[in-house]
Write a structure and sequence with these properties.
This protein has 930 residues and is an alpha+beta fold. It is built from 36 helices and 30 strands.
Amino acid sequence: MNSILTCLVYEHDMRLVVLAGILCLLSATVAMLLLRRAVKSSGLPRVIWIAATGGASGFGIWTTHFVAMLAYDPGFVFGYEINGTLISLAVAIGTTVAAAACATYDTGRHGTVAAGVLFGIGVTSMHFIGMTAIELPGTIVWDRSLVIAASILAVVLSVPAFAVRRAEKTSGSPVILPAALLTLAIVGMHFTAMGAITVVPDYSAPASNVISAGVMVLIITCVTLSFLFAGLTAAMFAMRAEMATVAGETNFRRLVQGVTDYAIYMLDTEGRVSNWNAGAERAKGYTADEIVGQHFSQFYSQEDRAAGLPEKALETARTKGKFESEGLRYRKDGSSFWAAVVIDAIYAEDGTLAGFAKITRDCTEQKRAANRIQEASDNLALALDNMANGIMLFDKDERLVLQNTRLNEIVGIPDNADLVGKTFREICELPYGHDAGSKIDASDFYHGHIDLIRAPEGGETIRTIQNERTVRVIHRPAVQGAWVTTVEDITERVKSENRIAHLARHDVLTGLPNRRQFVETLDAAIRDADTLTSKVAVIAVDLDNFKEVNDTLGHAAGDSVLVTLAKRLRERLLTGETVGRLGGDEFVAIKSFTDQTELDEFIRRMNRLLTTKIELSHTEIVPGASLGVAIYPQDATDREKLLSNADMAMYRSKASIEQKISFYEAAMDEAARERRAMGRDIWTALEQKQFYLTYQVQRSVKTDEVTGYEVLLRWLHPERGLVSPVDFIPIAEECGAISAIGEWVLHQACREAADWDIPHKIAVNLSPLQLNNVILVEKVREILLDTGLPAARLELEVTESAIIGDKARALHILRQIKAMGVTIAIDDFGTGYSSLETLRSFPFDKIKLDKSFVHELESRQSKAFVRAIVALGKSLDVAVLAEGVETREQLQVLLSEGCDEVQGFLFGRPATREQLSASTPLLFGIGKAV
């Protein structure tokens, strides 16, 4: 502190010190004034004010530094190197601009602190860069502690200055306080930093390219005062403009408040009243205290509010800029008046919606006058109100008094044709000839319309005229026997309605009848069959392997196939034949016939069209289809039964490899009932614990050691006896019980295996439904925790057909399960899809070779396939297990081919836990309760 005071008192010219302080205070004041303008502006003006703040105040602060430096007298002459001096000026301006930008664009606490820190760092940097520009006969030695203190002082005082400036926005305090704090920051930093200087004389050091002190004083003072004066002048002009704007707004507000003939008031963005003038109070009866803050919808009737008219008015003003309307509005006392309303959307400078300006004028008297004028000139009003349509006004003698040109356009009358004065009968005869038949038609046309005209309320009719236009003709009686005829062209509307009606009854993709249209057609065919004693056949069609087309070629290709087949079928239909699409790849057809040969020919034709090659953009396919036929009345006596029986016949075709056309048989009903009964029994079996588990051993080919057991589900039905999984698993999938069964099998198998003394692995099959359920991961984790079975002893088997449905989802679930330590095996490999892409996409732990290849090992093809799969497993480091090994010869072939594991009747049939315990006591532990 002593060194700072000594430097200030004994080494400075106090007159220049005072001048520097005044310049600094002026610069800081101008900076605060310009910053205030920047904060209140937006867009490009804000950028200009920020630049002005940095330019004027940055130069002034730089001037403060160099005037204070000119006041410094170390005892010998010194000057300033020009490059360093200009760099310090650039730093002062640049950091001031950055600080002003932070304080402007972020008016919160973070922006304030950032501005203060930037300003303090900038002032400090400017000072020390400027000090490097001093040319003197000696060397400057710095007191590091005072240098640090000077830097901290600049930041510590700058942050409060900007904080006070931020508070000024709400408190209205003058700019002198933040300006004074900035001045203290700058001056305090400067003289603290100057106190850190010790000059070691060195008169041998030459000075070059320097500016003398006198020149510096003159240049700096003139330029600085010019900058500050310009900035101060700009700020003063802006303040005066702001004051003028405020004064103008005040005068405008007084003017608006003084208007009594118009209700003028503002609404906020939600529609609440924010101010109220005398005209509004006079027109609506509310005082400002009563209505301000209330929603303007209370001026509407209850019906209008229920219809959402206030909200629609604001939405129109918001989207179109203005809303104008006339209608009834209601006063405080409940009385109504006819109001002309204008609502304008008001936007802030930044483009956001600020509210709405609403002007309401009571035009009840004008409305009454307009109504009187309307009544007095009814003929003209009727014509003008219907300018979009053709209009004709007839007097009581049926003569045309008035028509518009739109009538000529609609009806096709030449523009130069003069119909005024003609009778209605003569006009009706114009489209017809002069022969006797035409005259009769014209007379019928006339009498048909004249009956409508003479009705008490008039009438209307719709007809298609000669130029293919569809018109709606409306006759409305007027005074003294006159009437007005309006002709509306509804051609496009009728076309649109027809298109909509077509879409409602036809499939969008193929254009074939949809279920609704098809059912109506089938009902009509059945009624005709009853009348004509004929027959009706329903043919249900399901495309074969259509899902594979979508999966491999994409849905666009699948849609193209459907469109092509539909077009083929539609183009070859004969009388009494209909084809519809019920959804997906399901088609259905109707054939009315009396002779069986007619039906046979139709079925052959359909089958040929459905199985003919289709050429797509980049490939070609040969589609296939399964057909099921049911005939009314021999197979069913109502529509729903007929459709159901056709479906059953179709499913039999789909299940058959060779027979692709099946006729309904009564035995199919019995099979369907049997499946439904078994579905009910499956749920009962779950409740009564009729299911149990068996285990089939898996062994190493090389060592003959037991490597694990596959868990197999069995069902002992109280009446049916032992039911094969081949019979009940598909039905369980149909009735939705497969997920519950799968969960029970997994839990029961883990619980039983946890009691084994020898830690063999168990393999449990997963159904496609389980694999695609996201809760499977948590379910496996819960079961392992609940049973205590180590994850490494559980292996889950999945088929590729279960994965392929949603491959990404299934593999994601399997990866999560594998991460627990559970191993994953791909089952039945070699059948179904068997894509190498699946093996590449997921690191399976085991490949299970389907037993069909083991049973045919004597064939060269099967042996080659087994060899290829074993080689593939070895290359992927995945074990290969062969299923269905029943003979020593098969085992020897698998051993020679390098297969890792085997499973089959050769090593033991599936056995229950108790049977295994009796034959292999070491597995479960002798004496252990089971």
